[in-house]
Design brief:
Blueprint (H helix, E strand, L loop, with lengths): L1 E5 L9 H8 L3 E4 L8 E2 L10 H17 L4 E5 L7 H9 L2 E4 L15 E4 L15 E4 L4 H15 L4 E6 L2 E6 L13 E4 L13 H11 L6 H5 L6 H16 L3 H25 L4 H15 L1 H4 L7 H16 L4 H6 L7 H14 L6 H13 L7 H14 L4 H21 L11
Parallel strand pairs: 1-4, 1-5, 2-3, 2-4, 6-7
Antiparallel strand pairs: 7-10, 8-9, 8-10
């Protein structure tokens, strides 16, 4: 049986039971160099900066030593339970934990502190910058560098923090985190910044807090007065402006416009929370669940060879989730607020998928018949519908393509006017 001994964060933290286990071991392993002799497996790891692979490397080395009949101990910082390599060892072999002093000891300047392992800090980590944060398990400069980059994205490079290693603590700027001399039992403390006026960079949690403040009883009169209906048009306008930035390949403007779209989403969530309809967390939870359940080729047993097959699995999962038992059920779900061309294109695709006889030749025949009889106000809707069907069958995006062509026509007309040759502009149609 492999013994996992928690050694705390500095000399003197190991329990008597842990000391006896270490003294009686044939081989003593650890991830990093400690204040007593161990085989620091992290030093011999030559793989890429993938900490899950490092954990497996350590676990396999420890397991191999135990399988050879030796009495093996793996020393983990803190109480031993937060060490990810120890967890990997426990999955591979039978182990006995001998806890030590928790890494939390002495790392809590006041209550309401958020704790997170350095190995869990990544782009997906939710960090509320309004409350104090302790990041523990910063075992080396490589891990410190990764933590620095992720936290700097939330707090800014110049954020002041307290770095602790062993018995030593010092105030540092966040950008200095991977430049420390020692990482023995290292941890980082960042004070929560309640005053948004003092911050140089904001998080998603800050956005939600500011929105809540604006709609509080003593908040902004205009913000408090808004409803889903009153700001409905804002959501559409901001979405169109974001789409325009995409079309123009304007990354700087897109960043701003996506912020405006996000504001509308957060605003509607805030309104819903105040009226008791749903909460922001309800929206996030439902969205995340949707991403999981509809990506059956990622989180399930399906295999997607390309983008088309991936989209097919998404549609299958969606149909099952929504209980689409008929074409009528799918068509009824088309939003009334869709632009007309988008509605027509969606209806065409769903109908064809359901088996409707809407071949290009058949649509072209109908269109030709309408044109031969002359365009009137009465048949204009049919002409536009079949033209959209025919273009969609050819793979066109009618909404986007017509918009692009309309803008091109506008540019042609403006140029013709400047040249005083409007009579010749028809040649560009």
């Amino acid at each position: 049986m492999i013994k996992i001994v928690g050694v705390g964060i500095e000399n003197g933290d190991v329990t008597e039971k842990g000391l006896r286990a270490i003294a009686g071991a044939d081989r003593v392993f650890s991830r990093v160099k400690l204040w007593f002799d161990t085989e620091a497996l992290g030093d011999s790891y030559t793989g890429e900066a993938d900490f899950s692979l490092l954990d497996r490397f350590i676990a396999e080395k420890v397991a191999a030593a135990a399988d050879s009949g030796l009495n093996v101990v793996y020393c983990a910082l803190g109480d031993g339970f937060t060490d990810t390599a120890a967890a990997e060892i426990a999955r591979m072999r039978e182990v006995k934990f001998i806890p030590g002093v928790s890494e939390y000891r002495g790392r809590t300047p006041h209550s309401g502190v958020s704790f997170i392992s350095a190995y869990d800090v990544n782009g997906d980590t939710q960090i509320d910058t309004s409350v104090p944060l302790v990041v523990y398990g910063i075992d080396d400069a490589l891990i410190a560098g990764r933590v620095k980059l992720e936290l700097a994205d939330r707090y800014g490079d110049e954020q002041t923090a307290v770095f602790s290693s062993g018995k030593n603590s010092a105030a540092i700027a966040l950008y200095e985190l991977d430049r420390m001399k020692s990482y023995t039992g290292a941890a980082l403390f960042i004070r929560g910044e309640d005053d948004v006026m003092e911050k140089s960079r904001y998080s998603f949690a800050d956005l939600a807090r500011v929105m809540t403040r604006l709609t509080a009883d003593d908040g902004c009169p205009w913000d408090k007065a808004q409803t889903h209906e009153s700001i409905r048009i804002n959501l559409l306008e901001e979405a169109y402006e974001a789409a325009d930035a995409i079309d123009k390949r304007d990354a700087e403007n897109l960043r701003e416009e996506l912020g405006d779209v996000l504001l509308q989403a957060v605003f509607h969530c805030n309104i819903a929370e105040r009226t008791g309809e749903f909460t922001f967390n309800d929206v996030v939870s439902e969205l995340t669940a949707k991403l999981v359940t509809r990506h059956t080729h990622i989180f399930g047993e399906n295999k997607a060879a390309d983008a088309d097959s991936a989209l097919g699995f998404w549609e299958q999962a969606k149909a099952k989730e929504k209980s689409y038992n008929s074409l009528a059920g799918q068509l009824d779900r088309l939003p009334d607020s869709f632009p007309s061309l988008l509605t027509a294109a969606k209806a065409y695709k769903k109908s064809v998928k359901a088996g409707a006889d809407l071949s290009a030749d058949k649509i072209a025949g109908k269109l030709s018949g309408l044109l031969s009889s002359g365009v009137t106000a009465e048949n204009a809707g049919d002409l536009l519908l079949y033209a959209c069907f025919l273009a969609t069958a050819a793979g066109a995006d009618c909404e986007a393509d017509l918009n692009k062509r309309a803008k091109s026509f506008i540019a042609d007309m403006k140029a013709a006017e400047e040249e005083k040759s409007l009579d010749k502009a028809d040649g560009k149609l």
